[in-house]
Amino acid sequence: MIKAVLFDMDGVITDTEKYYYECWPKSFHAFGYTDFTPEDALFKRSLNHADTAVWCRSRFGEDIPVDEIRAYNNRLVDALIKERGIQVKPGIRELLAFLEENNIKSAVVTATRYDRAMDRLGQVGLDQAFGRVISAHMVERGKPHPDVYLYACEQIKECPGDCVAIEDSPNGIRAASSAGCRTVMVPDLTQPTEDLLPLLRGTAPTLREVIDLIREDLT
């Protein structure tokens, strides 16, 4: 029985993952790390701060100023959002309406800091649309570890197995799956790879089609 749906934010609710993909190479290059590639930006999606730091140091050396690069990147992303705005992903409002009609709980489970997440949701009129907004900064280990999903399930008082998690990135999928959630991928920048398929309840081209997957689990 499905009792809750847990949403990643960037790339699932808001069409903002593309801004990070565009800005991460610029940020690393600005600090002289010109070997940082677009593929590296894809790998980093939803990766928690601690694991990002470990990866950066192994890739570029112990002296890399990870926090400074992250802060610089946040400024670039904020500038792009101010310039281009934020659009929601197709089907989000229909899916939320379906959940409300069927008394299914909803929550956001994001790697983005809470205040930034609330600001972005507010820009598209969705800051009050979810029962809870959970940030990976609220737990010790963010994605791809299961902690943030387990914490979200505790907060909404539901078992992970009764929750659908919607993700677009490998790190998010691994986090949700290892927490025990029924994980659905709605691809954004990349399609599911062979190693991810066993972790997925299913895939959907947009959030509209997720409604059909949930209906199947309701009957």
Automatic annotation (TrEMBL):
Name assigned to this protein: HAD family phosphatase
Coiled coil (UniProt feature): none
Single GO term (MF): sugar-phosphatase activity
NCBIfam families named in the record: HAD-SF-IA-v3
InterPro entries: HAD-like_sf, HAD-like_SPP, HAD-SF_hydro_IA, HAD_2, HAD_sf, PGP-like_dom2
PANTHER family: FRUCTOSE-1-PHOSPHATE PHOSPHATASE, GLYCEROL-1-PHOSPHATE PHOSPHOHYDROLASE 1-RELATED
Superkingdom of this protein's organism: Bacteria
Organism, scientific name: Candidatus Pullilachnospira gallistercoris
